[in-house]
Structure formats: C-alpha cells, structure tokens
Write a structure and sequence with these properties.
Layout (H helix, E strand, L loop, with lengths): L5 E9 L2 E10 L4 E6 L8 H11 L3 E11 L6 E3 L1 H18 L7 H5 L5 E3 L5 H55 L2 H18 L5 H15 L2 H20 L4 H21 L3 H21 L4
Parallel strand pairs: 3-4
Antiparallel strand pairs: 1-2, 2-4, 5-6
Helix pairs in contact: 4-7, 4-9, 5-6, 7-8, 8-9
Length: 292
C-alpha cells in the first residue's frame, strides 16, 4: 500500500551545469501532474509527464525542476601559453631598445590568441549535455518519492487493518447474537399474548409468529456478505499495488450491509455493535483518502 503524499528532492552539479528536481505529492482522486520547468526545457515536458505517469497511478504530483548552466552561451578562455610567449617577446624587444616601458593591458588583450572565444553551443549540443543529467536526477527524486510514499503507506495499512479487525470482532458478536434472537422473540410474544388475551398462551401460535419474525429479521445473508467483503478487503490491501479505489468501493458495500443489519434487528447489543462498526468504517474511509 502506498500513500499519495510525499516529498523528495535530488540535485546534481557537474562542470558548468547545476540541476535539481523537487517532487511533492498530495491527495487526489486521479493522477494530476503539475510541472514547473525552465522555458528552455519545455521540449522535455511530455516525456517527463509520461515517466511520472508510468511510476505513479494516483495523486496530485507537483514537480519543480531547476537548471543552471555556467558559461554555456559565450565561453571565453585565457590562453596562458600565448601570454607567456608575448611576455617573452616583449621583454626581448624592451631589452633590445633599452626601454623599461610595458605595454598597457588593453594592448596585450588585443594581441591575437591571448583570449580564445569558443563557439556557442547549438540546440542539439545543449540537449546532449543536459539530458543525461536531467534523467539521472529525475530518477533519483522519483525513487526517493516512491520510498517515502511506501513508508507512509505501510503505517496507513497497519492502521486500516487494525480497524478492520475490530469490525470483524463486532460482526462475530452480531453473528453469535442472532440465534439468541429466537428466544427473545418467543418471550416477547408470550408476554404480549398474555397481556392482550389474559389467558393461557397458545404455544403453537407463539412458535408460528416467532418463525414469521425470524424470517423478517433474519440477517444471515447480510452476515455472509459482510464476511465476504472483509475477506476481499484484506486480499486487496495485501496484494494490490494500488488498492485505493477498490477499497473505497468495498467500504460502500460494507456500509450497506451494516445499515441493513441495524435496520432489521431491534436489539440493543446488535445496535451497539452496528454503531461501533460504522465508526470504524468511517475512520477507514478517512485513511483511504490518502491511499494510491
């Protein structure tokens, strides 16, 4: 089980290039990817979106990518060998002329070969330089993001399964209480007949009316379906990589059975168990809002 919330950041700095990727995750019914990229990296947007969609199935994911190039557009380099050669030649010339005067700096910089100006990178060269670093940093951030979501998801799973175990206990209490309902119905009918007729109670009539009430208030089917939903819930939680939507649907089915049991059985203990299950189910649904 994975959470939809999480945070990760990864960065890399090579010679002349600095890259960083930040990922933030929030709850969402569907996958919603929001990206903030430098304008010159817009050509990568579609491929980044596809990559994230392949890694994550649900949640709102905000990606912020920062990229800075150093001296990439207009590289200038000082040719130290040329400077030393000119300095030696100027020194010989000064000695030959018997002069101690040195040429000003602008004159030296204007000499051929002292400053070397490289060609500006083409778009293709620029992408070839940036792309490997970009995918490496994005992959590192996505791995961290996945780990964070799994870590938080494991805590959520433990909480949900604990609540589910409590609901299963309540369901067993209701199931054990069901056979006792026959005795309760018989006793209530005897008392009512005695109050109304004021004479000896016809046991045959009592048994007949009891059978009618047992059919009317039977919850055997609801208990059977409830246990089946619990089992399916556990299987989906433990095996499915992204169980959030299926578990939410199962919660709806479980809630339907609980409501039916509560409306059919006029018993105080059953009513208490129903209330406890509804409270636990609401807590589970609250937890599921953060499950992928």
């Amino acid at each position: 089980m994975k959470s939809m919330t999480g945070y990760a950041v990864a960065a890399r700095q090579d010679e002349g290039l600095s890259l960083s990727v930040e990922l933030r995750g929030y709850n969402s019914r569907f996958l919603d990817i929001v990206m903030n990229l430098p304008p010159f990296l817009a050509p990568f947007e579609g491929r980044i979106r596809e990559y994230l969609a392949g890694r994550f199935r649900r949640g709102k994911i905000e990606l912020s990518l920062k990229c800075k190039e150093y001296y990439a557009g207009f590289p200038v380099r000082l040719n130290r060998e040329a400077v030393r050669a000119y300095a030696g030649a100027i020194g010989l010339l000064a000695a030959e002329l018997g002069s101690s005067e040195k040429p000003p700096l602008p004159v030296i910089l204007g000499l051929e070969g002292v400053l070397e100006i490289g060609q500006e990178q083409t778009g293709e060269q620029r992408w070839d330089r940036i792309e490997p670093a970009l995918w490496a940093v994005l992959g590192e951030a996505a791995d961290q993001f996945e780990t964070e979501r799994l870590r938080e998801g494991s805590h959520t799973e433990a909480a949900i399964l604990g609540l589910l175990a409590g609901m299963e206990d309540q369901a067993r209490c209701i199931e054990k209480r069901a056979p006792e309902m026959e005795a309760v119905f018989q006793e209530n009918l005897r008392r009512r007949f005695a109050e109304l007729l004021g004479e000896a109670v016809d046991e045959g009539r009592v048994l007949q009316e009891t059978a009618v009430l047992l059919v009317k208030y039977s919850i055997a089917e609801e208990i059977f379906r409830l246990k089946a939903h619990f089992q399916e819930f556990r299987i989906e939680t433990e095996r499915a990589p992204s169980p959030g939507r299926k578990l939410d649907f199962l919660c709806q089915e479980i809630n339907r059975e609980i409501n039916t049991i509560g409306s059919k059985v006029p018993d105080l203990e059953v009513s208490r168990a129903v209330v406890a299950m509804k409270d636990a189910l609401e807590d589970i649904r609250e937890q599921l809002r953060n499950v992928e």
